[in-house]
Structure formats: C-alpha cells, structure tokens
Amino acid sequence: xxxxxxxxxxxxxxxxxxPRIAAQIHxxxxxxxxxxxxxxxxxxxxxxxxxxxxxxxxxxxxxxPLGAAPxxxxxxxxLPLRNNATDTVMALLTVHHWSDVAAGIAxxxxxxxxxxxxxxxxxxxxxxxFWLVRDYLPQAAAFDDTRxxxxxxxxxxxxxxxxxxxxxPHDCTDGFGAAYxxxxxxxxxxxxxxxxxxFAQAGEGVLAPGLAALTDDLATGRWRERYADLLTLDTVDVxxxxxxxxx
Length: 247
Hints:
The chain is α/β, with parallel strands linked by helices.
C-alpha cells in the first residue's frame, strides 16, 4: 500500500500549488517540450506540457483535477516507460517516500533525455531554521531524520546537479511542512497536519506535548514575542531546495 493511501485523503484541499514556487519550478524545467511527473500526487506544479504523471497512491490519483495529464499507478523505482521516453522529468517532494532512492534516481536518468528537476529539502537547515520543529516538535524532526535524503547524495546519484534555494512565502498556498511559518495557529488544525506527512506519520500522541506548548505560547503572546523578527519577513529559507541536472 502506498503511504498516501492512508495519509493523503485531504491532500487536495490543503496542498494547493503556490504560484511563486510554481514559477521557480517551471523556470527550472526550461523550455521542455514534454515532461513526466514522478511521484505526482494530485498534480501540483505540473506544467501544461506534462504528458504523464506517475503516482503509486490511488487516493492521490483520485484527487487529480479534471483535465490533468494522464496518470499511471506505478512507483519511481520501476517506471513503466522506455529509455529516453521524455525530454524532462520532475519529482517534487517525493524522493523521501521512495523505498530505494538509488533505484528511483536511476530510473529518472533512464527515461530523461535532457533534464531532471527534483524538489526536496536540506534536513540540517530545516532542523536549525524552522522554529516549529526546532523548538516545539523535535520528535517530528527526528522522524524526518530517518527518511530525509541529503542533497549531496541526491546530486551524486544524479551525476551532478546545481542547487537552488526555494524561499517559502509567508502566505504560501501549498501546505507543506514549513508553509505556515508566519501563521502558527494553522499547525493546531488537524486537517492541516494531516496533509503534512512529517506530522501525520509521527502521530498525534508524539506531537501532543509540543502542540500543547505552542497553544499556550500563542494564547499568552509568548510566541509573538519570541519570534517577532519573523513577522517582518515576506519569505524565509528553511532548507527547501531544487536540484537540477542536465542529462
């Protein structure tokens, strides 16, 4: 069973593409005439030239919008495509879910003729810079320690890659882990947390003490006092990265 067959039921409601992040991803894709989206989920950030989406979860596939690219239920480690099948491959916030990252990256390289674009995150930067996991939910960060793939390892598997920081806007519409960095009350919403695998998989019991502390700090004003500097920022870098490699 794919992980998002159990965790992804509300994904289409809480994970809407952010236009600023979309612009950066699409710039990285360049002038690709055709794109395959691997680990596609509900289809966020797919450009108009997407010709196929690959996703192992039927729950996620069912949430793809009408008019989205054709999709196939399959895993990254065994893509049902011929060699050099597409100009460009993209894989966004998905590699940490793969059972065999080396095999999955090898498959991306096998089917891509020109370029591969991966959106991931640097776990060390995330741990150090994102206040929620650093100060309230270190247990969630510890869970991510077990599955986050170092960006240098990904770059090596890709045969080299350039790395771009992906700043997170304060009003980000895509509810991934750090999307609500300036909207802390959102993390108290179970539906928001259910769309973030780091929290959903860690479990509510593990998160409860940290969420209780956050609730109290928001009620007393301690959060606003402690993180006053964040309220002046429009974007932050908490470790999200694009890796781009030309084949």
